[in-house]
Give the backbone structure.
Amino acid sequence: MPWGPEVVVFDVNETLSDMGPMAQRFEEVGAPRHLASTWFAAVLRDGFALATTGRAEHFSRIGAVALRTELVKAGLPDDVEDKVEHVMAGFGQLELHPDVVDGVGALHDLGVRLVTLTNGSAEVAERLLARGGVRDHFERLLSVEDTTRWKPAAEAYQYAADVCEVPLDRLLLVAVHPWDIDGASSAGMGTAWLNRADAPYPDYFRPPRFTAPTLTGLAEQLAPPS
């Protein structure tokens, strides 16, 4: 595929997975739905903070600790461990966004190699893609749990390049998170921003090379000229 990337690297949480149902999990333990967004932001914050000091921790541990804190702050300390377990179990039951199956299929048909790179666990990505029927399109499922720092640290993106045995500039990161786009671009990767929400891109981050509202739209942009 000389006109485009050799490997497309997908973020997983929110990029491939629809995390909307996590709000229902919060409701089911008596917490307000909006606490799901607050909690996820806290998980990212703490993961990023560890990365700045050269440390890393598993997403599941940070997620559980941050969730316990948010539930107690929300006045829900009773049976908090059971509540944490119920909410965290929701990650294993998420589904793909509606555009993912067709978009992944279209990218696969272009002959490009597909991998994932998540700040979460590879096992969660495995179950997600298997349920969606697209696991066989992916060559590898990578996680920062096998390296030293979370994205957006440069080491995480270099890890993907090393495993794929491809220079960073021949990889294209696909993500919904501008912070991930900026990190990958800073490391030397190509980038594609999935702007499903039709939101403005923060101008203090490095801009993406490609922007598309869906994965199918991105595949159209990456298709060779006719």
